[in-house]
Design goal:
Helix content: 25-40%
Structural class: alpha/beta
Oligomer: single chain
Shape: globular
CATH class: Alpha Beta
Bound molecules: adenosine monophosphate
Low-confidence stretches: none
Number of strands: 9
Strand order of the largest sheet: 4-3-7-8-9
Mean pLDDT: 96
Distance between the termini: 13 Å
Length: about 170
């Protein structure tokens, strides 16, 4: 993972002053880094019986779809309000910079599913906590949570439900 880490770009004061933005586009555009992310993720989850990977808009769609394809699981998007066309449920939350709402299709997850929810970066944990709330309300058998990058100094794990197993590939 050191190679992947070396390909992540820090963007200072984006999207606002005081934020050091972990830009993963520089890792995603590198074939070796992208392949490594995919294989590390699938190694963690290949024996968990995952049936659905939920990716959070928009950067969670990239690793999430790669993981779903490798696990032979389905992919489910969690999106910003008004983007999903059919019947949705929604949750609101605070994030490192600002407030937001996310939605998922009501029929995206069933009680037979074993789910991993994926996003690129864990910051304060608000986004993932809201995603966990959405997925939990659809009653899957089990929920796992994964990030490529975890900003440990923000203690985002504390915002997540205690009964979900959390993994991250790279910690700062
Ligand atoms: P949070 O809800 O605070 O955990 O924020 C997580 C979401 O915001 C993820 O979807 C990230 O893509 C994005 N995000 C928040 N802070 C950062 C950061 N410092 N660098 C990169 N992405 C971030």
């Amino acid at each position: 993972m050191e190679y992947v880490k070396s390909k992540i770009r820090d963007v200072i004061d984006f999207p606002q002053k005081g934020i050091v933005f972990k830009d993963l586009t520089t890792a995603f555009k590198d074939s070796r880094a992208l392949r490594t992310i995919g294989s590390e993720l699938s190694q963690i989850y290949c024996d968990k019986g995952i049936t659905k990977v939920v990716g959070i808009e928009s950067r969670g769609f990239i690793g999430g779809s790669i993981l779903a394809s490798k696990l032979d699981a389905g992919f489910v998007p969690v999106r910003k309000p008004g983007k999903l066309p059919a019947d949705t449920i929604s949750a609101s939350y605070d994030k490192e910079y600002g407030k937001d709402t996310i939605e998922i299709h009501r029929d995206a997850i069933t009680q037979d599913d074993i789910v991993v929810i994926h996003d690129d970066v864990l910051a304060t944990g608000g986004t993932m906590a809201a995603a966990c709330e959405l997925v939990k309300s659809l009653n899957p058998k089990k929920i796992y949570v994964n990030f490529i990058v975890e900003l440990e100094f923000l203690n985002g794990r504390n915002a997540l439900p205690v009964d979900v197993e959390v993994t991250s590939l790279i910690k700062y």
